Amino acid sequence: MQVNLKNLVSMTEANQNFSKVARLVDENGAAVILKNNVPKYVIIEYNEIKKEDVIKEAKDETVEEVSKRILSKHIRAFEELAK
Q: How far is 78 from 71, CA to CA, in rounded Å?
């Protein structure tokens, strides 16, 4: 996943203007929400998820385990954003 600096949104801005986040996802395919200037969440279009794979993998996992797995999969992009 390529991260575009234009897709970065602060947590405060996302809370106050979620329509902006949705618009970024519509236009660019993803938005990254920063918490304390560190990438925390990635928002993507639902149809971009391989539904069967996610459902099979998440069946026995907690939300925390799923989020750790997804974030670790894209760690290089998040490390680059954190610079």
A: 8
Give the tens place of pLDDT for each residue, 30-39. Answer: 889 999 988 8
Residue 9: count other Cβ atoms within 10 Å of its Cβ. Answer: 20
Q: For the chain, give the percent of residues with pLDDT over 70.
A: 81
Distance CA 21, CA 44 (A): 10
Q: φ and ψ at 68, to 5 degrees? A: -65, -40
**What letter does residue 17 receive in the DSSP assignment?**
-
Instruction: Return phi, psi of residue 2, to 5°.
Output: -90, 140
Beta strands in the chain (DSSP E): 8-10, 30-35, 38-44
Q: Please state the pTM of the whole predicted model.
A: 0.56
6-15 tens-digit pLDDT: 889 999 999 9
Q: What whole-number distance in Å separates Cα of residue 45 and Cα of residue 51? A: 12
